[in-house]
């Protein structure tokens, strides 16, 4: 029985294509759970979401408001997704009214904030009256279901690759998703472990939003997610989504990922044109060299490749940066949205020859054998 995606409208007022709109952007680019039928952002109304993100039309319209969206769509979507990821946790009065209106229209509410809608009295009452569901993606498991670190991660005998970065909202998840798809398309069974709300919305079967957990359990939950993916899926490789940056003073997610997944390699995501850290205009971005040194100093993992975010860069500047990093850092470098994942796949195959053997075997199985006359 095939899985039918739910249709969804994504709210991202004044943030689509910007840093705090990363949840909406991730869902527009990829979702195994939802069919995104529209985005709400009055500042970009009338435009195509794909063109705004990647200069490629994907026929997902951007609407000015909920009323306009429902007036143009052939039917009311199944879900209303809050698609912003601001540093502050609470929604505005205007956003609250829109959520209540979406409920009244019969739409389930999908929420990725730390503010749990399923614990809000007004939302609970309206959901009951309208017969709809509220799903808080960041809501952590019950205490009895949480895990502490055990060391059983040592049982994992396939490559585990962590997708870390030099800042928040710089493309770590996007690179992980694209690489995961590329590997699976080549016949390599790759499983992605989620560590944030957006990738969980996209359909990752393993993982948890680690920034919503009590700190004692973060490392253990990451270890457990990797173990579950390994034991249940029997994959050829596991990719672990990164969060923030090891050097970032405000967040600890990358440290927990290094400890909990004990990766066999790290792909480092970096936005070369970014001057200051996302949401922290007083904090300058670190040099990529310092992030590499820090990661390799505090863990046994090595950086095996660089993935770029091309924000505020021309195509020529991306090309020049790739050439510079490969010459100076001696690391394969690419921008997966512009050039695909070929370099990253080749790097993995060079370091883990079994992956290359899988590709060759799959290729030989698909080549027809010609009868000899």
Automatic annotation (TrEMBL):
InterPro entries: DgcN-like (IPR011669), DgcN-like_C (IPR035086), DgcN-like_N (IPR035402), P-loop_NTPase (IPR027417). Residues 43-140 form the D-glutamate N-acetyltransferase-like N-terminal domain. Residues 147-345 form the D-glutamate N-acetyltransferase-like C-terminal domain. Gene3D superfamilies: NAD(P)-binding Rossmann-like Domain, P-loop containing nucleotide triphosphate hydrolases. It comes from the Bacteria. PANTHER family: DUF1611 DOMAIN-CONTAINING PROTEIN, GLL3100 PROTEIN. This is EBNA-1 nuclear protein.
